[in-house]
Amino acid sequence: MGNTNQEPRRSRATRKKISEARKRRHAQLGHLNTPETRKKIGEAGKGRPAWNKGKRFSKKSRQKMSVAALIRFATSENHPAWKGGISFDPYPPIFNGHLKRLIKERDSYTCQLCSITEEEHYEQLSVHHIDYDKNNCAVENLITLCRACNSRVNFRRDQWLVFFTEKVQRV
Ligand SMILES: [Zn+2]
């Protein structure tokens, strides 16, 4: 008796799946700034009234703005990824996990072609270079795709280039 108020119980396997997905998500998001960087950012803003004082933004637009600021930093020459960046990787050092996360965050961790989410995909989504130039890591040149769609776009490259360029401009 007395069990009527309980929530429906999830199976053990379901609970495990949920907790693993959560762990994955947490590991991916991680901390974007080191404590020093956060301190620097804090000090830089001292003494000035906050630019957003008195303004109200929705949670979604606040999130969008902070992602945009992080992308600006990640692609600026001040970012540590640019320093001592000698690598045999075909990708430049700037194209690292940090930048990929930011692009995926902008794209809501969803393939921009077939709309599968990273959670449904069961492996990390890829970040595609729209103009097929691995050295062009400008934010407008990057878009989130799943593995299948990423293979698809290797054909008819000219068409995809136009398609994604227009799509990213609408983001
Ligand atoms: Zn896809």
What can you see in these coordinates?
By secondary structure, the protein is mainly α. It has helices at 12-29, 35-44, 59-74, 97-106, 118-121, 147-152, 157-170, and strands at 126-129, 142-145. It has a two-stranded antiparallel ribbon. The protein is globular, with a radius of gyration of 20 Å. It binds zinc ion (ZN). Zinc ion (ZN) is lined by residues 111, 113-114, 116, 145-146, 148-149. Residues 111, 113-114, 116, 145-146, 148-149 line the site of zinc ion.
Order of helices and strands: HHHHHEEHH
Helix and strand composition category = mainly alpha
Largest sheet: 2 strands, antiparallel
Q: Tell me the helix content.
A: 40-55%
Strand content: under 5%
Contiguous helical run count: 7
Number of strands: 2
The span between the termini is: 54 Å
User: Nearest-angstrom radius of gyration?
Assistant: 20 Å
